[in-house]
């Protein structure tokens, strides 16, 4: 699959906002939309963004239609997700990947959007962006400036060099590894196993993060990835933020013990402590592009995701 980078944004471009998973808090979403407008962008809202169908932002067909409409619309130069939550896996099978391949453009989100990152990349080769979303992050009043700054990478090519200037980093396995950066939310990555969209980690640098999962749940998911060969297929691992993943019972391993166990089983270069995920600040990264992890220099270098 040939890698496709989307074109950069220009002042005055129109971006689309969709909610392919759960509905966003509208007050936060409106502040997020104003942020995009403050970047000099015009904003077009998907038809189902304000709809609520249980834990979904509209029916599967409504959310799928929004995704298709935004990729098909020549006016739209980028697509920004309003929120994660749950639901993207429900529409993945029915996505028109030829449409996306023929109309490559910026696609941005994280958390439950991980399923779409994986499916779109593996079906089309399109580089997508793992970054904070409008209704669940950018629209919050206490959002960190670095979370907002990540959107600047959509306007001009920029190499990200993540060092301890952002956060303390801990080496789990020494070494240097290079390959396409892939991954996302651990729960969603595991949910791809056994499906048409099963995550391919061979020769790749694997990034993981999660939220609200007890250590025993993280243990179960990492063990499944390990047994499926996904951890050992990867050339190295980048461990992001595991927010509120504390044990809720007395008899438990701690999160660090669980993560360290599986990462060290692989013997591949790995570091943890990256502020990428359900955290504030949340540093944005493109998926599918070349990246290099160097534990000696304690840095992760990720090439630009746009043309």
Can you tell me about this structure?
By secondary structure, the protein is of the alpha/beta class. The protein folds into 2 domains: 14-143, Rossmann fold (3-Layer(aba) Sandwich), CATH 3.40.50; 160-302, Glucose Oxidase, domain 1, CATH 3.50.30.60. Helices cover 30% and strands 22% of the residues. The strands form 2 sheets. Strands 6-14-13-8-9-10-11-7 form an 8-stranded mixed β-sheet. Helix 9 (215-227) runs parallel beside helix 11. The two termini are 18 Å apart.
Question: Can I get a quick summary?
Answer:
This protein has eleven helices and 14 strands. The chain has 307 residues and is α/β, with parallel strands linked by helices.
Q: How many β-strands, per DSSP?
A: 14
**Spatial strand arrangement across the major sheet:** 6-14-13-8-9-10-11-7
What's the number of structural domains? 2
SSE class? alpha/beta
**Which stretches of 5+ consecutive residues score pLDDT under 50?**
none
Total count of helical runs of at least 4 residues: 11
**What's the alpha carbon Rg, rounded to whole Å?**
18 Å
What global shape is seen? globular
**What is the CATH architecture annotation of the largest domain?**
3-Layer(bba) Sandwich
Provide the CATH top-level class of the largest domain. Answer: Alpha Beta
Give the SSE string. EHEHEHHEHEHHEEEHEHHEHEEEE
- Determine the fraction of residues in helical runs and give it as a percent range: 25-40%
Strand coverage percent: 15-25%
CATH fold group of the largest domain: Glucose Oxidase, domain 1
Largest sheet: 8 strands, mixed
Alpha-carbon distance between the termini? Answer: 18 Å
Q: Roughly what is the average pLDDT, rounded to an integer?
A: 97
Classified in CATH, the superfamily of the largest domain is: LD-carboxypeptidase A C-terminal domain-like
């Amino acid at each position: 699959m040939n890698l496709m980078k989307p074109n950069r944004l220009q002042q005055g471009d129109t971006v689309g906002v969709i909610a392919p998973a759960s509905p966003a808090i509208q007050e936060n979403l409106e502040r997020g939309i104003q942020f995009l407008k403050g970047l000099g962008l015009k904003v077009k809202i998907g038809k189902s963004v304000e709809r609520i169908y249980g834990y979904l932002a509209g029916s599967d067909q409504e959310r799928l239609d929004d995704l298709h409409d935004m990729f098909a619309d020549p006016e739209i130069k980028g697509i920004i997700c309003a929120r994660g939550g749950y639901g993207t896996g429900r529409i993945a099978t029915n996505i028109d990947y030829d449409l996306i391949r023929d109309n490559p453009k910026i696609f941005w989100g994280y958390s439950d959007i991980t399923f779409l990152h994986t499916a779109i990349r593996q079906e089309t080769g399109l580089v997508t962006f793992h970054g904070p979303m409008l209704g669940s992050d950018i629209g919050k009043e206490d959002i960190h400036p670095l979370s907002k700054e990540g959107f600047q990478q959509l306007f001009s090519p920029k190499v990200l060099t993540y060092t301890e200037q952002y956060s303390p980093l801990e080496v789990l396995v020494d070494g240097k590894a290079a390959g396409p950066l892939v991954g996302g939310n651990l729960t969603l990555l595991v949910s791809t196993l056994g499906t048409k969209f099963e995550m391919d980690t061979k020769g790749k640098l694997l990034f993981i993060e999660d939220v609200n999962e007890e250590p025993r749940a993280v243990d179960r998911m990492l063990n499944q990835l390990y047994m499926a060969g996904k951890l050992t297929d990867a050339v190295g691992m980048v461990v992001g933020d595991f927010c509120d993943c504390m044990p809720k019972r007395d008899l438990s391993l701690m999160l660090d013990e669980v993560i360290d166990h599986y990462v060290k089983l692989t013997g591949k270069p790995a570091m943890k402590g990256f502020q990428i995920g359900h955290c504030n600040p949340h540093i944005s990264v493109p998926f599918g592009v070349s990246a290099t992890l160097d534990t000696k220099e304690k840095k992760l270098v990720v090439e630009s995701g746009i043309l």
